[in-house]
Amino acid sequence: MCAPLRRAQIYALGFVSVFDQITESLPEDERKQIFRAYIDALGDKPEKFRKDAELLEKEASALPGPEALIPDANGTALQVRQWQTRILVLSGRL
Predict the structure, then answer these.
(1) Which residues constitute the domain of residue 83?
(2) Cα 60 from Cα 86, distance rounded (Å)
(3) Looking at residues 22-48, what average pLDDT do you find?
């Protein structure tokens, strides 16, 4: 996996959220095995993916509202990271 993708917490949060919803009917041990296999295949670490998702979710839940998630090069630390991710996406590097 390319380095910028690993740093994009929003990608981790999106993937983990969808994965958990899709696999919620499976036994927990099977879910963990599938998750590990998929993330390993991407060349990343499953624990890091989950941690990145949890950190972003925690940080976002403490914000006053959705407008605080808008990417802004001069905003909060979260908004700056979102801005950087946006730039990577627009440049084709993510």
Answers:
(1) 3-90
(2) 17
(3) 95
| Dist. CA 10–CA 16, nearest whole Å | 10
Which amino acid would we find at residue 19? F
* DSSP conformation class of 65: S
How high is the pLDDT of residue 47?
A: 94
Q: How many CB atoms lie within 10 A of CB 11?
A: 19
Q: How many domains does the chain have?
A: 1
Region 25-46 average pLDDT: 94
pLDDT at 86: 85
Return the CA Rg of the chain. Answer: 14
The pLDDT, as a whole number, for residue 26 is 97
